[in-house]
Amino acid sequence: MNNTGVIFFPAFDWAISPTHPEREERLLYTRDQIFEEGIMDLPNIHEFKPRLAEKKDIARVHFCVPNVDAQITAAHLVSAGSALVIADAVIKGEVDNGFSIARPPGHHAMTVAHGNRGFCNINNEAIMIEYIRNKYGLRKIAVVDTDVHHGDGSQEIFYDDPDILFISFHQDGRTLYPGSGFVYELGGPMAWGSTINIPLPPNTTDAGILRVLDNLVLPILEEFEPELIVNSAGQDNHYTDPLANMRFTAHGYAELNRRLAPDIAVLEGGYSVETALPYVNMALLMAMAGIDYSNLREPDYKSELFKEDPRHIEYIDQLISHQLINFRSRQQHIEENIKKYGREYSEHQQIYYDTDGISEDQSRRLRICPACPGWRIIDSSARHRNGKKYHVFCISVPAFACPDCRREALNAYKDVAAYNNNFDFVYLQDRANDRYIALDKAKGREEVYE
Question: Which residue among 62, 76, 108, 312 is the active-site one?
């Protein structure tokens, strides 16, 4: 038995629309079933109360355009704050592990936030991870994203961070939103091999996903030796989910969770409100608490309908072999990247906010440093739903930046702030000193979180 913490936050006052799949009923049926089954009466289950995250917690991860208030509601602060409450409880030893069952979700939200994409405005897991690093000094953390949709926001946020291992298994991006998460997406030049994607064929069952877990995910975690394991706990791989095409069961989720043994699970997607979510959430909670889940089955479950396609197994075995080689050769590739790119690596990308209909044009530069993860510059522009176009300049200094990189980044902020009038806002995200600045160029006014 484990002492397991849990938080429920249905967010009654937040929904994209009254009939949208991402609405409060996602959690209400779960809460009813868990209480009816008596899970919450067990002495090793501890319910915690949510709290608000601070705006500084958001600014530690995101460049919210034009400001934090424009991209969040109170519900977002409570959802993010719920993850922080569970993190505090786990790290302080009040519980052995914990599950934040809160919404809105977050794993599609990227570093720059112009609006809502994939139902996400801010990234709860990323906010929690940077909070943990800042408050408790942990450095090496693994994120295992089990949502059916690729966790593209979490991947992007940590893509240049060699101390965050991001693993995502999901339905193949050629067949499902957001159309990313392919095997060649392996991390930035200084973090190559710290991103591992596992795109799975539609209709993969428990057997296929658990095969990936046992033969790829768990060996990688053992070699990486994280100080903390976070499960980005999407539940839309379930066979009844209306937005995807996978064949995972509640019992399969429980077994995955038992083997993975995350320290913290944070709710993500899952939209089969009545037929899946109460069973899957209960499965995850039972597995985390060490409660017997052998009799947990959906009412319509029939084992003969969940036989894995042999072609899937062949593909999965090849994928496992390929990604193990990539992970184990990461240091070699990082050394080659330092020689190849020298002092700076740059790239350009277009990002679409499907929920809000926003197209973002973004250029990114990583200042490569052999002594630390380096620091990032993001030049971003997008026209918001109100018709106003924002052009912003963002500087991000990682928590473990060396003194030289801190100094360079601060000087870059001062130079752009003082002399460049091409931007509406200039942002400095200085995690090393836990100080965050948003400069409104038109008003000549800085908003500072410290």
Answer: 108
